[in-house]
Amino acid sequence: MGDSTHNPSDTLQRRGLMFILSSPSGAGKTTLSKMLLAKDAEIKLSVSATTRPPRPGEIDGVHYHFVTPERFQAMIDEDDFYEWAEVFGHRYGTPKGMIRAALKEGQDFLFDIDWQGTQQLYQKDQQDVVRVFILPPSIDELHRRLKNRATDSPDVIAARMERARAEISHWDGYDYVIINDDVNLCFAKVCAILEAERMKRARQTGLIPFVRGLMQ
Ligand SMILES: Nc1ncnc2c1ncn2[C@@H]1O[C@H](COP(=O)(O)OP(=O)(O)OP(=O)(O)O)[C@@H](O)[C@H]1O
Ligand SMILES: Nc1nc2c(ncn2[C@@H]2O[C@H](COP(=O)(O)O)[C@@H](O)[C@H]2O)c(=O)[nH]1
């Protein structure tokens, strides 16, 4: 006889998802990441290390681990990173420490990383990586967003705008591409993708025993 109290999530044994949001600077991935972390208690942020100085309001250990170039180099030498890359003249990397064991136990992580880091993570683990690329509605709007955010100097904004087209050229290396025009609509799409990817994996783990139970 089937167990009518069986819940599919009881037998969920999957590894955690590595859910990546990438975009050209200013397209809105940090905004979307914050919305996702506020809404979904099942996913945690992978906190990167960076040699970039903090922006106003950024907290060490929460938004980034802010480290010196020497410390970053030591972490590379000690093989402490899942991936790392140089972006806009600074180094950024995903430390293994915090996430390795949690991923094995099924914890989902959100990664706000660039295309180089995305390629590196995907090469390491194609099963668990979900790659989402966020596009701005136009180049003018991207510029407007960077200016209105008012966190970077005109020089930094100019450098990021100069790189925007090159960043966008990597869109094809992603599983999903979303235009962030209306932020709420874009966020709904991000949530739908995450949910669908979780369901795909639950099919392989918790769902199959559940269905077998129903059919007994
Ligand atoms: N759909 C949207 N419409 C209008 N403004 C938006 C939208 N999405 C985000 N913004 C605003 O655009 C600015 C840039 O967004 P955000 O900081 O999230 O970009 P980002 O892609 O994370 O950039 P970076 O890579 O430089 O950190 C912010 O001021 C944010 O409030
Ligand atoms: N490859 C990696 N890229 C990263 C990581 N953390 C952040 N980033 C990307 O860097 C740029 C600039 O970020 P900002 O906070 O200075 O605006 C942006 O594209 C981020 O996605 C990382 O660990 N690895």
Automatic annotation (TrEMBL):
- Primary localisation category: cytoplasm
Keywords assigned by UniProt, alphabetized: ATP-binding, Cytoplasm, Kinase, Nucleotide-binding, Transferase
- Species in which this protein is naturally found: Erythrobacter fulvus
Matches recorded under InterPro entries: GK/Ca_channel_bsu, Guanylate_kin-like_dom, Guanylate_kinase, Guanylate_kinase_CS, P-loop_NTPase
Q: Which lineage do the record's taxonomy fields give for this organism?
A: Bacteria, Pseudomonadati, Pseudomonadota, Alphaproteobacteria, Sphingomonadales
Q: What reaction(s) does this enzyme catalyze?
A: GMP + ATP = GDP + ADP
Task: List, alphabetically, the PANTHER family matched.
Answer: GUANYLATE KINASE, GUANYLATE KINASE-RELATED
Which EC class does it fall in? transferase
Q: Which sequence ranges form a coiled-coil region, renumbered to this chain?
A: none
Q: A Gene Ontology MF term for this entry?
A: GMP kinase activity
Report the protein's function. Essential for recycling GMP and indirectly, cGMP.
How is this protein named in the record?
Guanylate kinase
